[in-house]
Structures
1.
Amino acid sequence: MGSEASVKHAHSRVEIDTATAPQAALDAARRAAAIDIRFPAFKDGRGYSLAALIRESGFAGELRATGDILPDQKDYLTRSGFDVIAPDEGSPRWARASFTHAYQPGLAKGANDRLPAYRARALAARKAQVQALNQQYGDAPPETIIAVALEVFAGRIAMLSSFGIEAALGLALLAQVDRAVPVLFLDTQRHFPQTLSYRDQLVAHLRLEDVRPLTPDPAEARAQDHDGRLYERDSEACCDLRKVRPLNAALDGFDAVITGRKRAHGSGREALRPFEFDGERVKINPVAGLDPARIASLYRDMKLPAHPLGAQGYTSVGCWPCTAPSAGTHPRDGRWPGSDRSECGIFDPVRTARAEAASRRTVRLIG
Ligand code: SF4
């Protein structure tokens, strides 16, 4: 019943005017997929504040400015979070048909190259928050980092787990604080059967309440991996299909994600801090500072079950086509053996830069 109602709302467009109370505007943002803010007069600045407030609440749908709008307001409208500007038909000041032509780009140079002000403010605040958390908890033990993260990002945080060789520790620490926190599992459909049975064993052992398997989009998988051997032809495209895109979609609803990354695993992780901001959301790395010996002793102390492949020489476990027992001394030696890859792309800084660029909105003029 509830989901039917929310689907209906999710496809709705709501119109509010500049006199709408802030709380009513936020209620509209929760209900609607698109919002029109009507400017009764071009000099009415309340529409900018409402737009910024709606964007800062996390609203990601279309925000359209309608009514009596002047061309040189475009820069302000953009930075307030509008992505469509639709002046009224026959507006006495600005006929829709003339809007695009009459707009003087030189007056608001670079409007589309800058982050909207609401977004820039949110990014700056998030960066400062991460810096403060690292200053206060940079050397704290993993259980403290998890407890702090769950408090600071309550309701907006998930843990990402591969249910791999060292995954049980982070999951157990999470379960000690809150078993209901969502745990995201990238079900690439290429996992070892041992990983899947270990996942089920850990879920039961730790009584995790909300483990969410993330699978690739079936249509995309059919189109891009028709024979199921994309990992042979282009392993980066395969990881993009089976890991990066499903994770991006799942993370949309979260401000923070807890990872199991460690400095001891190298591959660019040597300087990992417990709290990180990637330009989009906060990553929390509670076990960043633990080395394999410390992890092994915590497994013993906490009586955690071991991944079955650990006894067969695997020190890091991913998908079966791309994982081998470790041949060297490095924990991730067995990942993508024979290639120079060591990361699947979900923590790729290039991806982060792409995500940040994607947040730069291009305003559409309707006229
Ligand atoms: S690790 Fe291998 S099989 Fe798994 S998604 Fe990446 S390329 Fe595909």
2.
Amino acid sequence: MNAARRARRTAIAAMLLAASGAAIAQSPTQPAVTLPLPDGVLSQPIAERLRPSLPLEVPVPQVSREDLVDSFDDRRETDRRHEALDIPAPRGTPVVAVDDGEVVKLFPSKPGGLTVYQFDRTRSVAYYYAHLDHYAEGLEEGRLVRRGEVLGAVGSTGNADPAVPHLHFGVFELGPERQWWKGRPIDPLPLLIGTSR
Ligand SMILES: [Zn+2]
């Protein structure tokens, strides 16, 4: 990269950082210093890596983008924040991958029921699909799935109300260890409706 281009890029990056309030500006020669980010906001480097995938595919394609309702900040049980998006749909409605990437874990959990953890291609974020009724045939850990490929079906496994089957969909920004169980929750809605906040 030539100097002019690098300077322009740095200026743009500084503007973006100032706008997000997420990190402090830095000179091109210094390593990036990132301050703790507000909850629910993608960090700048990861937003850049994810950009080609945005907006993500709606994980329940039978539901239109306009009908998605933000539930990231909802309170659950004892003051715990929800930190995901619930998409109600009839039991058995197909659930698809929102992006290309590897299925890293199929995990039956007490709260989440049948769950899928999928990484994006750059292994920057994990996509989390929970309360599935069942997995798609042949789905297994290590499998590369394409955006739009069926992963399973909407259900109410785990702690979901059987009367209200829904997909619980989460996005987690991964740390350098790339551990599927360890990430910072990001509000999925802006990634699905084509704007990032
Ligand atoms: Zn939920």
